[in-house]
Write a structure and sequence with these properties.
Strand order of the largest sheet: 1-3-2-6-11-9-10
Shape: globular
Largest sheet: 7 strands, mixed
Order of helices and strands: HEEHEEEHEEEEHEHEH
Oligomer: single chain
Number of strands: 11
Helix content: 25-40%
Length: 255
């Protein structure tokens, strides 16, 4: 494989610090807006690839900093969520969207089963297989584990302003979510809450229910408003906030 081919078709998962000592495992499923050239930007203008529809702005940088600050393993995606969304179950409408927010995605309209399978094989499965293998090793080694996935959200969605600075989404891991929120609320100026601006559901989420709840591992999804991650100072501020807010030890067992 040539260097150019490797750049056009990178690995599906960037794994950092897999032997880190933290019991936290970080995931960033929307880390990249990359599309191989053959997809011709799915028929979109290049400006759309800088929008939230293509990736979670700032989330990758926060994840990398947190990995270093916490000495935690981290797994980041290598391809745009528009090709296939790593946090949507395969076969659901959000997996390979034909409409994202208010934008049609021409290159995803009418694709056949072979192309769907190809994207799953190249982009989706390698990411989740790597995460699952890491979690399996931790179980075999008797290591405690908590999963924290890092995302960002738009300040305005379909014309509706979102007032929160951050949200912590959970299904089973209420204790972990509340511990993080309690830490964030040390700054009284922050507007943070549980299960905003989204909620966890099995038809619209993958990592928390599959890697976390189904394994009995406490798992949460942290959403940070994108305008707060618009520059390096904001990214570092939020990495520091989250590093301080995450409880030092496992707080619960998910049944």
């Amino acid at each position: 494989m040539t260097a150019q081919t490797e750049k056009d078709w990178p690995v599906a998962v960037e794994a950092l610090n897999e032997h880190g000592h933290s019991d936290i495992v970080l995931l960033c499923e929307h880390a990249s807006n990359h599309m191989p050239a053959e997809y011709r930007q799915l028929g979109l203008d290049a400006s759309h690839l800088q929008r939230h529809i293509a990736w979670d702005i700032g989330a990758a940088e926060v994840t990398r900093l947190l990995s270093r600050r916490l000495d935690a393993p981290a797994f980041l995606s290598g391809y745009s969520r528009l090709l296939i969304d790593l946090n949507r179950p395969l076969g659901t409408p959000g997996s390979i969207p034909v409409l994202s927010e208010d934008t049609g995605i021409p290159g995803n309209v009418g694709i056949d089963a072979a192309e769907r399978d190809r994207r799953a094989k190249v982009m989706f499965s390698p990411f989740h297989d790597r995460v699952a293998a890491h979690l399996d090793r931790r179980v075999a080694e008797g290591r405690p584990t908590r999963i924290v996935t890092i995302h960002s959200f738009t300040p305005v969605f379909l014309g509706v302003a979102r007032p929160w600075h951050a949200g912590v989404l959970h299904e089973h891991a209420a204790g972990l979510a509340e511990a993080i929120l309690s830490g964030l609320r040390a700054d009284a100026a922050l507007n943070v809450a549980a299960n905003v601006p989204y909620v966890i559901s099995r038809d619209a989420d993958y990592a928390v229910p599959i890697h976390g709840d189904d394994r009995g591992i406490p798992a949460v999804l942290i959403e940070i408003r994108q305008d707060l991650l618009a520059n390096r100072a904001g990214i570092e501020e939020w990495a520091d906030r989250l590093a301080a807010a995450l409880p030092a030890h496992e707080t619960e067992t998910v049944s």
